[in-house]
UniProtKB/TrEMBL annotation:
Database matches in PANTHER family: FERREDOXIN-TYPE PROTEIN NAPH
Matches recorded under NCBIfam families: ccoG_rdxA_fixG
Transmembrane residue ranges: 30-48, 68-97, 153-172, 178-200, 333-352
Pfam families: Fer4_18, Fer4_5, FixG_C
Originating species: Vitreoscilla massiliensis
Keyword vocabulary terms for this entry: 4Fe-4S, Electron transport, Iron, Iron-sulfur, Membrane, Metal-binding, Transmembrane, Transmembrane helix, Transport
4Fe-4S ferredoxin-type domain mapped to chain residues: 250-278
Record-linked InterPro entries: 4Fe4S_Fe-S-bd, 4Fe4S_Fe_S_CS, Cyt_c_oxidase_cbb3_FixG, Electron_Trans/Redox, FixG_C, Ig-like_fold
Identification of the protein by name: Cytochrome c oxidase accessory protein CcoG
Protein's UniProt keywords contain Transmembrane: yes
Amino acid sequence: MAKTNEPQEEVVQFYASSKRIHPKLAKGRFSNWRIIAVLMTQLVFYVLPWLQWNGRQAVLFDIAARKFYIFGITLLPSELIFLTGIMLVSAFGLFWWTTIAGRLWCGYACPQTVYTEIMLWFDHFFEGDRNKRMKLEKEGWTAHKIRVKAPKYLVILLFCFWTGFTFAGWFTPIRPQWLDLFAFGLSTTQWFAIGFYGFATWFMAHIMREQVCFYMCPYARFQSAMFDKDTLLVSYDAERGEPRGVRKKNQDNANLGDCINCTLCVQVCPTGIDIRNGLQYQCIGCGACIDACDEVMDKIGSPRGLVRYTTEAVLQHEYADSDIKKRLLRPRVVGYGMILFLVACGLVYGIFSRDLMNIDIIKDRGMMVRQNNEGLLENTYNLRLSNASEETLYLQAAVKGFDHIELTGLPPTLEIKAGDIINVPVQVATYPEYADKGSHPIEFEFRYHTEGNQEWRIIHENSNFIGE
Ligand code: SF4
Ligand code: SF4
């Protein structure tokens, strides 16, 4: 065929179907850390909802009752600012950590990685290591394959169900939910939460796996903006490793680098990449390739660390690996750290110094003003009183604004049980000569004390009184 200088057509695919990655099981210190991280995160997720605190679930985001319990702290809808604060602290914590340690969060604690790792454990347990799994994948649906896969799918199904059940238990009390499960008494909302999270676990961790990190996770895309040349990253020391090549007997291998091109670092990689190609956004920093390569280096008698957690500056000979710790106190890390510290302090102070009683005063718009039987002008208000503490609160109220002003509708001392939110209509009345036409500022004063501490705390709330 005659050659032409015409530009050749290139087909660009916007969607590339991917092959299933069957990583080899890595063994070593980072793999052990990953196992610990998986167990710790799952311990928190699966066990915390079962813990009790003062006779109720220790951590419960009770959306139906609009109360969030975190051990001894009860957050009410009006205090969602604190939840925002907790999220803000978590986000700054993640930014700060990413600047120091790159993608360690992704590799060790991100739910997607953790659940994918658990699915890999199931794969490994039921189907064997990489080679066996790859062979099984190529096999048609034979009786042998069905015999191997069926128990795995059953275990995954149970695992996803249990994960969904636990997820629902963070939002509705898990102990009654457990009893309702066997009594066929779960509500549609509970079934939806269980099904939703169970399905998400199966789909994201079993079906999609590393594709979520590649194509769906926004954090994977923008976190490199937080890296600098002192950030700890999994890197291949190309200067030491190249030229790579297999050692041959009875040949001079002196011209070769330390990399023997065994590809074990690629085989263990859960995202299927070759770390020797440099920094790639698909690398989740899990360290499996470090473990694999260290084992190889031990076998060939070379020092460990051909693939290691190090910084770009080290690879550029700006300082040695042993000086990485000294670079921790750099402006970006200190800056993020200070913001994190200040926001965390503000949050802790805010939570522990907040009023245990939340009060909303809502003016009755239906009837602005009326004259009562005694000839006084009267306005009606709805008091929404929320006890955000773990104890019964005792409340007294008064109102000021005119030389003569009366507050009715409340008992002398109102008892509000722990966590209760109550609505109380009250009336404020004064003589017509004090309140002419229009709006007049008034002030409510509430005093309350807890069951255990008799010291009064005082809250002032402003409102207005509509005159004739
Ligand atoms: S495991 Fe180490 S020696 Fe083997 S290919 Fe990877 S970098 Fe080279
Ligand atoms: S390249 Fe190494 S650190 Fe990165 S994802 Fe693969 S195994 Fe983990």
